Amino acid sequence: MRVTSSAPWRPEVAPPGSAGTALPGQAMGEVGALPGDLAIWVFIFAELAVFALLFAAFSFARAAHPASFADGQRALARGLGLAETLVLLSSGYGVARASRSMARGRARACAGWLLGALMLGCGFAALKGFELDADLHRGMSLSGSLFDMFYLSLSFFHLMHVLMGLLILAVVAWKAFAGRYAPGQHSGVETAGSYWHMVDLLWLVLFFLLYVSHPYR
Fold first, then answer.
1. How many helices (H) and strands (E) does the chain have?
2. Beta-carbon neighbour count of residue 137 at 10 Å?
3. Is residue 99 within 8 Å of 191, Cβ to Cβ?
4. Phi, psi for residue 59 in degrees, rounded to 5
5. Distance between first and last Cα of the chain
6. Is the model's pLDDT at 117 over the cut of 60?
7. DSSP-assigned letters across all residues of 132-177
8. How large is the average pLDDT for residues 186-199?
9. pLDDT score of 12 more than 90
10. Which of 61, 78, 87, 117 is most exposed by smallest CB count within 10 Å?
């Protein structure tokens, strides 16, 4: 004899965020997508390629002139470089928290984190400007040693990216305070965050190459 269940059939519902479903404010097919606008990622990858070539040129030059690069590195203020690193990484943390706050619908918290990140970014720019001014006053120049040329070129090039990032953060922070973003509609915050994290990453490589890594003799 065949026994059938009298319980009504219910369709299976996949948990939120699993394959085939989308979280609130997240469109289908966007799971795992790059944060922010596609255009900023094209720019980021282009800039990373340029910096990669500069880093490679620095490494080859250092291998060919280890004594000159070692002398130049010893003249740098390593403690100031470490302070700059901590300030910039703290700013990057603030940007990450801002994006997370906006994703949870906390617009005011997002704006506050962005403002803090902006202030820390300005602090990094001020510290780096003070360091470069001191370096120039003690005789460092683009026409000096090979290390001086690379150090000043890489530092100024990165600082230009920092200043552009500060402008982006200022605009995004203003929009956050004005209520222009909402959960699922805050690509501007993610775009700014993606760019700022690129600035963080590039500085970490620069700090290692210029202040920490020693050339082989």
1. 6, 0
2. 8
3. no
4. -65, -40
5. 89
6. yes
7. HHHHHHTT--TTS-HHHHHHHHHHHHHHHHHHHHHHHHHHHHHHHH
8. 89
9. no
10. 78
Q: Which token pair is 8?
A: 């009504």
pLDDT digits (tens, 9 = 90+) for 19-60: 444 444 443 334 457 776 788 899 999 999 999 999 999 999
63 forms beta bridges with none
Note whether 145 and 72 are within 8 A (CB): yes
CA distances from 139 to 142, 144, 159 (A): 10, 8, 20
Average pLDDT over residues 7-30: 44
Burial class (CB in 10 A: 0-12, 13-18, 19+), 100: middle
Nearest to 92 by CA among 187, 158, 162: 162
Tokens of 149: 């040329």
pTM, 2 dp:
0.80
> Which residue type is seen at 40?
I
Q: Work out the mean pLDDT of the chain and round it to a whole number.
A: 84
Q: What sign does the dihedral 84-90-94-97 (CA atoms) show?
A: positive
In which residue are the tokens 């699993």 written? 18
Query: Beta partners for 78?
Result: none
Q: Which domains does the chain have, with CATH numbers?
A: 82-212 (1.20.120.80)
Q: Which residue has the tokens 């305070």?
A: 177
CA distance 25 to 23: 6
Least Cα distance to 190 among 71, 33, 74, 55 occurs for 33
Distance CA 17, CA 31 (A): 8
